[in-house]
Amino acid sequence: MNTRMNKLLTSADGRYFTTDERQVLLAYAESLPRRFRAADQVEEKEEAVLRDVVGELQKRHADFTKYHDQAWARVYRDVQLVLRADVHAMVADDAGQLDDRILYWMRTMFAANSFTPAFVRDCFSLLRERVRGQMAAEDFELLRPYLDRNVEVLADFPEPAARAV
What we know:
Blueprint: H1 3-11, H2 19-60, H3 71-92, H4 95-112, H5 117-134, H6 137-154
């Protein structure tokens, strides 16, 4: 459950919920079927989206394999992990969960492996575009803030001294 809900539940400990607190909880509960519908769309199209993202990156960054062992398999895996974390954060309605569980750690890994911010931005912008093309517009809007957050956080590191992309 998201941080806001946890705080609300904790603050109401030992007393009954106020009308406003009930409304917040009900609104979240009412949004769950729609959030799961969006999650199901992503799960159904995940493989095709990831293959498309990696395929496009291979065209744009053909020399990437010179620098990294099993480069494209690792990119596929990393993007898959982030996408799945996006979906979990969307269901929980908690961007903070996304940052804490994967984005900050993954950003560190990209920087440590001498990826460039431009490559990471390209990768996760492509992911956002490809997911958008596979989902109903109203369902994509639930996931869009998390996909936007990927681009914002993951590409926010300094250029490496020696590029490996």
